[in-house]
């Protein structure tokens, strides 16, 4: 290895290290932004180093340079515009879209590498051809799967599970055909055509695997697809023999895997059951109102305002319904008004309160809620017994005390113990069911009072009441 | 098995383990920026596309490079910018008052 190659290798190593350090700094809100900047700096250096490698190598075709430059410029502009303009509520679909194109790029590297060696494909070592196939399969599934997931999140594809008749058999057939083509390619008989076939089959499989999955399972699905992209990028690293791709891909694969596990646990669902699909309704909790199983106590906005104004400690429990009603600013204004009266206000946030892991925290941060007030399940649950009023807005199944008993759809699901507080106010349009499709026993408890209203209007009315007491 | 492949596998497995170790410490509050930031990191696939460009000599090859470059650049540029936008919103009360 000459001096140039060694230097390049060491610079790539430093870039990979900066990704690790960047992720490490993300373990606290105070340092997270710096972490992302460290990681971005490493990325910039990696790209510039690669420019140097290409110039040093010197045998670039003019058309290759043009294709690379034009593609990079166009993609970067599109990415920047999307990133600048996106609403925080639309974050899950954008992250899914970026995930899709990342997986697509990894799959195209496999294809492009094979095209470049079209003349001597049978002389490529087995390690390259195997990882080429793996990269193409994983990348292809991720590309189309993430696009469907993104469409579901954006409402362009129906969020409800779409069952393709005989879908499981079609998937098995796709898998077997792809395996046959892969065998043919690996034994050297086929060539590029087999790879294109595998790519097309992978794209079809991605669509068929994602369509049957319900909107409520999306936090798990996008985490899983994120892990897949990481793996595809690592495979691209194997194909090209690039350590920095392998390391970055492995890091992302690990991140996706951890988030997938956390989300599946928080929803009380096994990953295999989610991938098998067919569960859950479409979008926000708009199931037809079922007849109440037990009588509930109602409260007016004025009474709720009175109760909150004279409480010492209030915990707000926001759910996806809050985001669907775009009411995060109202809830933040209410919390501020209460704090100004000396009420101790914090937020109890369930891991699946949103359409992607941690989504609710971003929405509240956007509404200027200071992050020390955002508390996760383990942090807030011991605080409920000392809480005067819990205000539940747009959350349902995650507050159902039935989860502590065996024998129902939410059994064993980690919940927020809101029923242990002195009183609970639930803002909800009707007594409709959550995704689990069962009555929420919280609503008929003696400590609970229901305020039947749209999240935004209900919060607005309470805020007006609180301001009156302050005057 | 050849030593290069073994070295690559070693790097991959250790990368996974480092990832598990570092990421399991990230609090739930930051899971969205974490995912988006990790997303940006796999944008390093752009480096792979650039290396691929060096070997492209046919029209098919150029087309693949063009599309792959557009995909990868969108991933990396958008990913870092949107993550930064989100993280800039996470403030404490004192910072909000300023």
TrEMBL record, chain A:
Instruction: Report the catalytic activity.
Output: NAD(+) + NADPH + H(+)(in) = NADH + NADP(+) + H(+)(out)
Its domain of life reads Bacteria
Give the UniProt subcellular location, in the record's own words. Cell inner membrane
What membrane topology is annotated for this entry? Multi-pass membrane protein
Q: What class of enzyme is it?
A: translocase
Q: Which UniProt keywords apply?
A: Cell inner membrane, Cell membrane, Membrane, NAD, NADP, Translocase, Transmembrane, Transmembrane helix
Q: Show the GO MF annotations.
A: NADP binding; proton-translocating NAD(P)+ transhydrogenase activity
Pfam families xref list: PNTB
Record-level GO cellular component terms: plasma membrane
| Parts of the chain that traverse the membrane | 6-26, 38-55, 61-82, 94-116, 136-155, 167-186, 192-213, 220-239, 245-264
The family database entries (InterPro entries) matched by this protein are listed as: DHS-like_NAD/FAD-binding_dom (IPR029035), NADH_DH_b (IPR012136), PNTB-like (IPR034300)
NADP transhydrogenase beta-like domain residues are: 9-463
Family, similarity comment: Belongs to the PNT beta subunit family.
Q: Which PANTHER family does the UniProt record give? A: NAD(P) TRANSHYDROGENASE SUBUNIT BETA
Describe the function of this protein.
The transhydrogenation between NADH and NADP is coupled to respiration and ATP hydrolysis and functions as a proton pump across the membrane.
In its UniProt entry, what is this protein called?
NAD(P) transhydrogenase subunit beta
Q: Which organism is it from?
A: Actinoplanes nipponensis
TrEMBL record, chain B:
Give the CC-aspect GO terms. Answer: plasma membrane
Q: Where does the protein principally reside?
A: membrane
Q: Per UniProt, what is one Pfam family of this protein?
A: PNTB_4TM
Per UniProt, residues of the NAD(P) transhydrogenase alpha subunit C-terminal domain are 9-91
Instruction: Describe its membrane topology.
Output: Multi-pass membrane protein
Q: Which reaction does it catalyse?
A: NAD(+) + NADPH + H(+)(in) = NADH + NADP(+) + H(+)(out)
Q: Which UniProt keywords apply?
A: Cell inner membrane, Cell membrane, Membrane, NAD, NADP, Translocase, Transmembrane, Transmembrane helix
EC assignment: 7.1.1.1
Residue intervals passing through the bilayer: 6-24, 36-56, 62-83
Q: Which domain of life, per UniProt? A: Bacteria
Q: Which InterPro entries match?
A: NADP_transhyd_a_C
Summarizing the function annotation, the protein's role is:
The transhydrogenation between NADH and NADP is coupled to respiration and ATP hydrolysis and functions as a proton pump across the membrane.
**What is the recorded name of this protein?**
proton-translocating NAD(P)(+) transhydrogenase
- Source organism per UniProt: Actinoplanes nipponensis
Q: Which gene encodes it?
A: pntA
